[in-house]
Every structure is written in C-alpha cells, then in structure tokens.
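Annex B. Sample input.
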Amino acid sequence: MALGMQLFGVASFATPLRYARSFSLDSAEGFVRLRIFVNKDTTTYALCPAGRCPSKIDRRVKVLSIPLHRVICMTSVHEGYLEVLNLRDHIVGVDQASFICDSALRAMGKRHAWAEVGSDAQTDWERVVALHPDVILYSYPPGGVSSLNPKANALHIPALATPEWLENNPLGRAEWVRLYGILFGRERMADSLFEVVRHGYDSLKAGMKMRKRRPTAIVGLGWRGQWFVSGGGSYVAQLLRDAGIHYLWEDDRHTGALTLGLEGVLDKGREADLWLNAGEARSLAGLESMESRSVKFRAFREEHVYQNDAHHCAEGGNAYWETGAIRPDLLLSDLTHIADGTLDSRSGNYYRRLPKNNSK
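Annex B, continued. Sample output.
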C-alpha cells in the first residue's frame, strides 16, 4: 500500500521495507518514528507533520517537521534522491557545485537558486544559517565521527546522517528513496519509482541465472602500492553476481573495502576477463600512465576495461555517484551488457568501455 500523509499519527502506521536494513519507520506516541541503524548504534527521529509533535518526547529523539521544504545536501547521493523525485527546487545549499552532474540542478545554481556551503572543516556556517534550512542531509561517516552534527546542533539546525552506503543489497540502497518520499510528501511517487526499479532489477537478475559462463572480473585501481577492492559482501559484489559476473573476491564476506597489495591483486586477477571501475582513468592510455603495470592484466591488453563515468561533467560531477544508488536496475543493465560484450564506449547508462586514447 502506498503511504500517504493522511496516515501520519495513525497507531497502525508502518512502512514495510523489503530490502533496506539501515533504517525503519513505524508509529510511536503520536508521531512517525524513524530509526537509523549503524552497527550497534541507533539514532531515532520523530517525524512530525507541520512540527506538531506531542509535548513530551524523549530528549534523545531528534525532531523533524515534515514535509521538508529547504534542504542542504552535503553529498551527491542526497541530490540524486531529490532529483529522481523532482525535488530540485527544495535544495537551497550544496557542499560543492563541481560535484553536481545533473544539468537541471546546475542550471538552477547559475540562477542562484542554491548556494555552495563547503564541506567538513571548510563549511561556511554563516552561509548555512542564512539559508534557513529545514535540515542538513549528510552521509554517516565511516568512522562514525563528524564535526557537522555537533555544530548543527549548536546552531539548532536539524541534521540527518544517512548510512545508505552500508546497505549490501543494491535494492536496499534504492529503497531509501521511500524515506525521502515520506520526508518530502512524495510517498506515492517514491513507492512507484521503487517498484519500477525493483521489477526491472529482478527481471534482469532472473535472466542472468541462465548464463552458462560467468566472465571473471577485478575492480578498482592501485594507489601508492595499495589496491582497494570491494568486499564480497558489498553491494558492488552483489551487483556483479546478479549480472552473471564472477567477481574474484566474491567469496570474501566483508561489506566494505579491502586493502590489498598490488602484487596480490595481480596474482589473482592477471587473467581476469574484465576490469571495472579503474580509478579516475578516462582512457587506456591514461590508465597506463597512472599504473604502468596495467599492461600485465589481460583485461587491459584485450581492451576490456569499463569505467563508471559514462555521464560526467568537466568540473568533476558523475551521474554514477549522484543517481546510481537509486537506479541499480540501470547499473545491472550495463553490467549484463558488459558481461556479454555488447557495451561500447557510449551506450551505457552509467558505464562505458574505455577507449585507447580519449580525453573524455
């Protein structure tokens, strides 16, 4: 059942989540309770229509007046969730304009519809206050410590840290769009979008189960003697598995990144069929200039290197980081075409095959 604002405050209110594991929604004491889970820690928010909350709420519970209207987005993925729900006009601040890929949102910035506020220690808090945000959206930091939340609390500005990146199921990350639908009064749109994504993803996944041969793959790029690869329990590994690709670290159970030596990656991945997400390389020549030992990988020599930058802007924004989390169905479509060798240098939603020499 699609959720509507008329359900807020009803004792039986609940949002059945199918894949997301890092948040929950239910009713409690006259408001909608949002709980966000990171490891063993739980942060609780009271979502109150027009700010009408019961007079007695545990002081440890953070209050958000919904629907939200003025938002500062501190990461690309938050902008992406709002873009797919046609909520660009609710964005009044971003961390850095150069990270934005969406042309409509960039155009709004040129009309001064939103302002840059900086990030981390460089955040311009005077500008933040002047924007009068209803909330600051930021990603829960890997170490769990952020200077943003204490400063926002001191200024009495609500801040919501989201750990959608911890979801190990691609559809779990996409399902976070349902929370944004509730926060902004777009429940039906969010539910409908998620169902489109889920159906598309599951249909592609079912088709890949019939694949007789699974091409092998490595991911990432070495840097100063170290190579960061996605753990076998991560959403990246799940995407590859669902695309019919044998990720060489898929038996590992880590949900985060693994730090390996380049020689170890070379020993295991020398004969891999595919190489994905090769750092910031825009061409094979550029990749070789970054890592001269790239030529030792068969995937490089046979030009089967694929980059997740099919749609990026010159300033640095990349659609993959903006909306990729919300559209795993489109990511899976790209990866299935990569697996069967039919993705060229321009045809993907998020991926492209790296050319030999190209400044793109």
